[in-house]
Amino acid sequence: MSKDLPKAVVFDVDGTLVDSERDGHRVAFNLAFKEFGLPFYWDDEQYSYWLGISGGQSRLRAYFRHQASSGSTQINYEKLIVALHTKKTEIFQDLISQNLIKPRFGVMRLINELENNEIELAIATTGSRTWVEALLAQEFKAINFKVIITGQDVEKTKPDPQVYEQIKKSFGFSNDKIIVIEDSAIGIQASKGAQLATIAVANLYTIKENLNEADLVVDGFGDDQNKVNIIYDPLHITPNYIDLSCMQKLLESKNN
Ligand code: XBP
Ligand code: MG
User: Fold this and answer.
1) Dist CA 256 CA 73 (whole Å)
2) 230 pLDDT more than 60
3) 54 CA to middle of ligand 1, Å?
4) Alpha helix locations (H) across the chain?
5) Residue whose CA is closest, atom 8 of ligand 1?
6) Which of 21, 49, 184, 214 could form a disulfide with 198 if both were Cys (CB 3.0 to 4.6 A apart)?
7) How does strand 216-218 pair with strand 230-232?
């Protein structure tokens, strides 16, 4: 095996493996608000703002605090958050089972290439294990993600590097053998905090963020017919799309 091939590739889930925020989690949060009779609704723009808080429960807590401080609600939000988030998770699982949460374009091609080359796969997400496992079982059922660390397995969620520190500990590989794929500034802060090479695959929400802490920023996974747009490429990788040779080139440039 070439010395600059990764031994493991770690995927973030929301926004990276699947495009799940605007038409998935956002919808589920809004339906949960409705079921609880709460006068709240997150439109696309508002949700984009609240996404800056990772983790559904923390996001709700921050939003409720904001509503309380602006005087628009007197709700004792702490009592509601767990129940509301449980309902939201149930609704999101329904969306998964209706096949509404799909892998991003080019992800399956990349995962198959990595598996064919015996590169280990892992998941590092802030999302809750309940729905993450349901999603993996449904949309990625033949894929062996050897390590799965969720928001429920860490004390501090992204941008804290804890989730990536746990991944490193589970594999026991040196930092220069692991590549992370993330979509957001808080995700990149977490992977970089754990000193891991990171490719950012921006989506419609995160393209507005500054992702330049990553080692390469593109706007999708692409494939041989669909070139990605390169947003930031300080190591001059100039990929046409994200594949193993692009990862190898990235590690070569970083490690030599
Ligand atoms: C994204 C998140 C999650 C989801 C909602 O996680 O911050 O909170 O928005 O899922 P990542 P939960 O990009 O790290 O995969 O409601 O289960 O938290
Ligand atoms: Mg993400």
Assistant:
1) 57
2) yes
3) 6
4) 26-35, 44-50, 56-69, 77-97, 107-116, 129-139, 162-171, 185-193, 244-255
5) 55
6) 214
7) antiparallel
